[in-house]
Amino acid sequence: MSTPPLASGPEGPDALRPLLDTVLHALAEGAVARGGPLPAGGPEHVAERLRTALGDPLPHHGSPDALHTLVRALAEGAADPADPLCAAHLHCPPLAVATAADLAASALNPSLDSWDQAPAASELEALLTRSLADLVYGNPDDASHTSGTEGTEGTEGTEGTEGTKGTEVVKGTRGAQGTRGAQGSRGAQSDALVTTGGTESNQLALLLAREKHHGIQLVCGANAHHSLHRATWLLGLPEPVVLPTPAGTLDPAALDSALSDLRGPLLVAATAGTTDAGLIDPLPDIADLCATHGARLHIDAAYGGGLLFSDRHRTKLDGLAHADTVTLDLHKLGWQPVAAGLLAVRDPTDLTPLTHRADYLNADDDTEAGHPDLLGRSLRTTRRPDILKIAVTLKTLGRHGIGHLVDQVCAHARELADLTAAHPGFELYDHPVISTVLFRPRGATDDTVAAVRRTLLDQGRAVLGRATLDGRRWLKATLLNPHTRPGDLATLLKLVEGHTPR
Predict the structure, then answer these.
(1) Per-residue CA distances from 273 to 57, 90, 138, 169, 389 (Å)
(2) Contact at 8 Å (CB) between 294 and 179?
(3) Is the separation of the CB atoms in 343 and 195 below 8 Å?
(4) Three-state secondary-structure class, residue 493
(5) HEC readout, 96-126
(6) Rounded distance, CA 43 to CA 32, Å?
(7) pLDDT in tens, 304-329
(8) DSSP string, 367-386
(9) DSSP H helices in 1-108
(10) How far apart, in whole angstroms, are the C-alpha atoms of residue 301 and residue 197?
(11) Contact between 343 and 326 (Cβ < 8 Å)
């Protein structure tokens, strides 16, 4: 048996060309066989087809047809986010140029845990992460403020009321973290780390907060992403204080009351783009309250962060620059292949706890000689260069090009909301803030709403999500495909209408 060719090196491109042709043919054949946004037949039928195609997963002898067979099978059994009727989740159709760049990253296979494994990739990451941090926080030369003052130690007050999830709220004032100025000038250029997505970014944000303020407690709304709760458990933090969000967003008055009642260092987590309805918390008010009470602020903008690229929608993120840390996720409103997450950090000294030494990767003498130290850029060691696809996309389209895509999907959401509101058979939850539309058949029970969604899934006709707000279940359309046409939106409503029992 001959030695298989490698993807890189002088012969790499020639070895890849016929394989890429095989992949592209298999993708096309699989899409035709699927015939819609999702394979028909439901989970067991899809699993059986995949098992048949795979056969023995660890055969004694290989097959030259494996690439074609398995890619075709995966494509046939895929949920295709490029289909306009696939609109359930924050699961974007990746741009072709970003996917092509990702191929180059896989072929070259740099690992961003040491400079000698990723000489150019490490510099590209450094340059682009600083630029993306500036997109969040602005240029440090343009910011001015007065420094925050160190607060005095809090005094214990009277026993408070029982908080959400059994967190006891105690009256009294606290200083511990001090206050910060209106603008929160950075003294040094802000920075950003590349992550695998919102979950890792949120976890890192809580870790950095814990290392800076030991014993810190998370305060968030019931609308906050579930990853924040998992991060508190993983990091051994106190049980978070969860504030009710009956209107879908964090209420400043409720937050003010909680911050007044709680003692000790606090981390407030706000959301810019909730997973269920795409709502944005009142960020300026929350930032002001954090400044007043001396609380640290994290904003989870995994969904809504893409609005920064849009001249039309950027103002919806006013207040974002006041956050100590911000989660971004460009495999949502950035049209990147998974994974493409970031954590922006206002004060780069907050990253100091990530400093780590492993002599074979960042020996002191190498660092002193000018070799970049990459281990402090992540909790992971081996890291693929996800920054390449992001850099290629931004350089190809520019901020204006990405912003145009954002404007398109937001416009599609408004169109769907208008169609829904005008239809006597549907009820619209509210007009969209970003690109998520919640609706339900008028008069339907929650069980009927769930059944309609599952029927469309099992038939492979449409992929819709679900959300519970106002104590009721809604169908969720998350529109991330800029190629969606008005006729596609009408088709989506017709499918729901046609599968709703009367």
Answers:
(1) 41, 10, 21, 28, 24
(2) yes
(3) yes
(4) helix
(5) HHHHHHHHHHHHHCCCCCCHHHCHHHHHHHH
(6) 19
(7) 999 999 999 999 999 999 999 999 99
(8) HHTT----GGG-S-SS---T
(9) 12-34, 42-54, 66-76, 96-108
(10) 11
(11) yes
Below-70 pLDDT ranges, the chain? 140-187
Task: Please state, in angstroms and rounded to a whole number, the distance separating the CA atoms of residues 351 and 109.
Answer: 26
C-alpha distances in angstroms, 388 versus 128, 339, 379, 409?
Answer: 9, 12, 20, 24
Closest CA to 117 of 339, 357, 354, 375: 375
Six token digits for residue 459: 């038939």
| 239 vs 406: CA distance, rounded Å | 36
Residue type, 302: A
pLDDT digit string, tens, across residues 361-412:
999 999 999 999 999 999 999 999 999 999 999 999 999 999 999 999 999 9
Q: Are 320 and 272 in contact (CB under 8 A)?
A: yes
Question: What would the two tokens of residue 241 be?
Answer: 């204080």
Tokens representing 59? 């055969």
What amino acid is encoded at 334 in this protein? G
Question: Residue 383: exposed, middle, or buried by beta-carbon count in 10 A (0-12, 13-18, 19+)?
Answer: buried
Cα separation, 332 vs 365, in Å, equals 41
Alpha carbon distance 496, 501 (integer Å):
10
Q: Mind listing the pLDDT tens digit for each residue in 206-261?
A: 999 999 999 999 999 999 999 999 999 999 999 999 999 999 999 999 999 999 99
- Return the beta strands (E) in 333-435 as ranges: 341-345, 426-428
